[in-house]
């Protein structure tokens, strides 16, 4: 709890890594996630560093892995396409010589996969074209069966020359979306000297470009003359239709259909064998790809860390600097020793602690419960090194302040049940690995939502609201009978008034305060919103002032820890005095009014809001009764203090010389404004720190899996 209350001690260490064991030492540190490395080569270009060649090799392998993963997803249905899950347990970082084996196997698998995929795509294209050709001949057979093959003769010219004019055909398939515009352009370009017929194919075939299944439309165009034929062919090319040679006789058509049927069967057989072999390659890729990806990611991360190191004078070791928690120094030494043992070196790597001039990073231990609250606090600024951790108190204050605004038993119960389900099923892989951004945000804050729901149930019970309706848990403390018994209400009063007011002065009308929460009788009153808004506003003010004052008091622990005793007297105490004098006085008036005035005196109670405004304006309102005796004397004292502050300010300004003087009033006002702004956010810490980001393989793999 001590480290959670205040950030852990972090020190700067200098690592001396032997050249032969540097890779293994950094790999061991990555497995443990202990240290955050610093860049000792800030002025060196990224392309001029020592291990840039190894980094590029890893990047090329990652590009190849991306291609393999795309091929795997292409073989799956769209709803099943997802990134491959990382292996469990994750393999260790490979040795440099092992990376060569991974490269060779990956290159061989990629080459085979590309070749087989290319053959498969070619076979699919051929099969689609043959099926289209078969569909064209089948669907247009009835259109040309009755047409005679002999040529039609027509008389031309004055010399009665006779020429043979043959009826020609253009047949093919077109996408159904293009049929209307295709037909319209044919008629306009050929001026109606053609015969066009469209029919849909019986089976759906694959589109060669997009891979989607399309029910193609077969067309048959009959025309006379070469010029019209050229126009028709150009229009077909413009619409990217697939045209086929069309036989003139029935015998030729039957012969072509028989040949097409045989070729289709042969291609289907070859395509089935190709698909089977491709599936074997993909299964092999699925088995090894997750392992390869993790190993190459680790190797690349190690090489990038080695690029942050600087060589020694003798070039026999690498020197690195890193931030490390003091409590983890023994583990650091063990990791260096283990890396040297794996490398078989005779000299172990070691570390030295260095003094640091810059502030160390902040490290707070987190778990699945505190992670959501810590992220909320860090969004407003990371606490400085060794400052008090606000997230510990945010675990209670944040969900409770939310419940003050949200309070409803019904809605809070629904929120609690949803969060409780996420908490109980938090180890379900389907929930943890869901890549939906909204879901990941909700699942990460499941404990936060659970507490918000529980507190909302409590505050909803205080407000007596369940789905915005009141609950009659206990009997009401207000009674109508005494109003008739005291002759305050009668038939004439009821007939002459739209609204009736219950007088708590009449004995028996108001008996005792409601046992818990708001009396449900207020749900029937005309001034329900006025009463509830006033009640909730005053409760929010009281809780908010307590919250802000608590934040001011917590700054004492920061001042005391860092030895800033002067800040205790000149910052903390003035802030606390300022807070209590203004808002604390407001809370005092609210509570005093609740205690001092009974329901029988409700008609003559003073307004706290008017009193608070008059205190700032230094005015007196005779229509508003005094809350307690001595208020006028308090105001006079405040006026006297204000006059003395103004006098000091005038003296300082009048005695101004060429030198810059210390303006007490200006500093006081600046500190007062700073107090209001800062404590409005309850930010009692500096917020100028930065988090420790240790070099960790697990964080690297989780981040890549989330992309």
TrEMBL record:
GO terms for cellular component: plasma membrane; vacuolar proton-transporting V-type ATPase, V0 domain. It holds the Pfam family V_ATPase_I. This is V-type proton ATPase subunit a. The chain crosses the membrane at residues 400-424, 445-463, 539-557, 569-596. Essential component of the vacuolar proton pump (V-ATPase), a multimeric enzyme that catalyzes the translocation of protons across the membranes. Required for assembly and activity of the V-ATPase. Its main location: membrane. Residues 99-126 form a coiled coil. The keyword Membrane applies. It comes from Liparis tanakae.
